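Ticket #4471: structure output looks truncated?

Reporter: J.K.
Steps to reproduce: submitted the chain below (967 residues) through the standard prediction queue, then opened the result file.
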Amino acid sequence: MMAPLPAGGLRSPLSRIMGSDRVLDRMIDRVSYASDASIYRMVPQAVVLPKSIDEIRSLFGFCREHRLPLTFRAAGTSLSGQAVTEGILADISRHWRALQIQGGGKAIRVQPGVIGAHANRALHPYGSKIGPDPASLAACMMGGILSNNSSGKCCGVSQNAYHTLESLTFVLPSGTVINTEDGVANELFCAREPALAQGILAIRREIENSPLCQRVRSKYRTKNTTGYSLNAFVDFERPVDIFEHLLIGAEGTLAFIAEAVLRTIPDLPVKYTGLLFFKDLYTAADSIAPFLGVGVKALEIMDRAALRSVENQPGAPEVIKKLPAAAAGLLVEFQGADPAEGATFVRKAEEATAHLEPILPPSFTASPAAQASLWNMRAGMFPSIGAMRKRGTAVIIEDIAVPVERLADAATRLQDLFRKHGYDDAILFGHAKDGNLHYVITQSFNDARSVQAYARFMDDVVRLVVGEFDGALKAEHGTGRNMAPFVEMEWGEQAYSIMQRLKRLADPENILNPGVILNPDPQAHVSHLKDLPSVDEIVDRCVECGYCESKCPSRDLTLTPRQRIIVVREIERLKKNRRDPQLLELRRDFSYSVVDTCAVDGMCATVCPVGIDTGQLIKQFRKVHHSRWGQRVAQVLAEQFWMVEHVARFFLWAGGAIESTFGAKAMLALSRVLRACGGTQIPLWLPDVPRPAGRIPGRRVDKPEAVYFLSCISRVLRESREDSALFPGKTFAQVTDRAGVPVLIPRDLPGTCCGVVFSSKGFDAALRISVNRTVERFWTWSQSGRLPVIVDNTPCSLALRECRPHLNPENRPKFDSLRIVDSLTFVHDDLLPRLRVTQRVRSAAIHPVCSAMRLGLSSTLERIVGACSERVCLPENAGCCGFAGDRGFLVPELTSSATCAEANELRDGQHDAYCSSSRTCELGLTRATGRPYCSYLDLLERVTREVNGQPVANIRPASETGGQALS
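Returned output as attached by the reporter:
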């Protein structure tokens, strides 16, 4: 159902509803939202970012008036096409992130934009968590968890969203708003929506008085998300209770869920985990009954192909590589709250395995590290296929459920279908205790023949699951577009007719996510398929799952890593017609949205299932836009980098002088003029720009134990401490002296750089010059690798750790012999044990920079600051600050957007110190929060300082010292 656009287009009327800055109708925005994690692709007519229920109601009214389809999207990690549309797409991930713990952790109130893992993180101090535990919990949001009735490895049926729901606030397409927490919610619902309420009661009576009632009860004893949640008609009596539970699993087709309250479940800390191997898949599936009898919490089954896909993964047991060709595995876990249960779990495991015949002796562990390795292996099965698939093919993961007692037969019959249809790379795994199987295949949709091959396979899957096993075509991923044509086949004519009536009652104009769950088109599952043109090695690996988005600093400003790749693919599709106006429009906005606002911080790779660092792709784009002359200029600057430092310090001095004389506004205006003349690579001058650092006197010591490398950013920008202005590295020198560790600071530091300034912009030749010179100097300073080289700036530590591919053959052996250590590690391991903390501060907030996260040093920073303070505050929303070396000067709005949530969190409290481990990140956080961020070394120096043998006075909060927490 599509209607003509309103006269004049959508921007003007939608802007009247929510403001023009929250209406995205540029081609690049529409294309970037055209895909979710599924195999479907639909370009919306506009994307909107509503903030309030009133705006949602107005949006409903507009869509009803113009018969425009409306789809709500949270994280877009949907695997079944629920979050794409050709109508209006409402992104609720940006402005619906509120959560509140209730009852001491017994319940949680969430808006739909809250990431599931964030909800659990907030509940962790209370020893509880939400019931649903999908594998995508670190990326998916509560809106999707509720709307798909998501589950996972442990929650089964009893602890999913449906069964842990306390209340909902929802908005109907008519504009009616109901909060089911309200004591008179049912009366309000019946009064404001009489036709819907009466229709619900009529359906309930029909189901109660027919054989369908027993079928409903039977089907929901196991996982089932096919169609609407008909069990609501059986489980509840009041219309409002029935309807709120119908919304769980309704995939945004009946109403908008604005808020939910869920009962929580205990987060069981005691675990006992084992991996068992059997001769084949049938035997493994047939061996689950004894475990079910002793109350196992998680029971995962994996065929040989699934095990093979992760056998080379770090932490995977070596024995997997030696398993027979037909072998299969069971991953078993007991969970409890009381440490005393550990012995009980050992006994239960022995009891369950006593009469089984695994091909190797059962192996169980209580080690958290070993357990994490096993679960990481299990989690790596889907991404492993994504990483290995052929270019141009999509990854399809589907899930079914069958009666547990028939799991063995269903699993082997699925393997037969893989062979029949030529899916040689297919893998099969799943939640065995629930009869829930996942299969992963790869498929091209780039031609009609491939599409038809997939359609034939799906027909056979449907006949197998429904016809032979009377199972559920969808167990936990939602119905979506791919199973909508088969809902009637699974449920039968009466149930399907009831679902159609329900949809008409709640959404008479059929504006909410039409075609999802119910679709009369028998070919709907093979329509709007996503073709994946071959573009680039990095791009082609992306499965568009969206796991990267929560880590991206530009996600609320322009695009996410997934969206950048989607746009690149769209340009490749349109290249066949070079004069296509859509192509021209995409290219017009490409530079700012895709390239300029990417922080290239690599955080996306830390959560990407296939390890994609989109920053590397952006560096390639920056590289191809450089002329030969530009590349040569960069090489000259790298060769004469000492001059760059001098010039940078001069401009900082000159800018400061102008600002002091004529005011900050005058200097900002001047920088804008220079930027207009010289291009976007000219930085903006902002009032918080530091003054230049002084010269480096160097520091000679007898018998040095280490070399201290001051990065170029530390040599150019003054430290936060005013008394360190004329001596970069003074703080570190004071701390090492106090610890009795002699450290050399070379005098010939100028001109030495880690190369990030060149690599982030795609100047590869200049990068090679820079890092080769640095390694040569490191070799000299360290006495041919005898002394460790301590790097002061964590981003530089990461860059130097990864520079080997850019070194020449002469310097690679030197690099391999060098010990390059981040200052965090050196301070924690070598200095802190030798220091005496004379007086700890009361509270300190920390910001682990993205490079520290990638190096695994976040906890190191936390421990150092913990030794200096009575309480350490790590903000829940701490992430990449987006300063990214120079982005904070070139694109300051990136830093502002990236730090917004963290800044809001910190404004509610006062701390005695605010610490990080990168000078530019400290600038970004100071700018965002208004709090004086400094190096963690400043805090360490202060709390270990003595005056006349006595500790210094208490450090007062920043609010009591005019904003300067440390002096």
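Triage note (M.O.): checked the attachment and the full token line is present. The longest helix spans residues 641-662.
Status: closed, working as intended.
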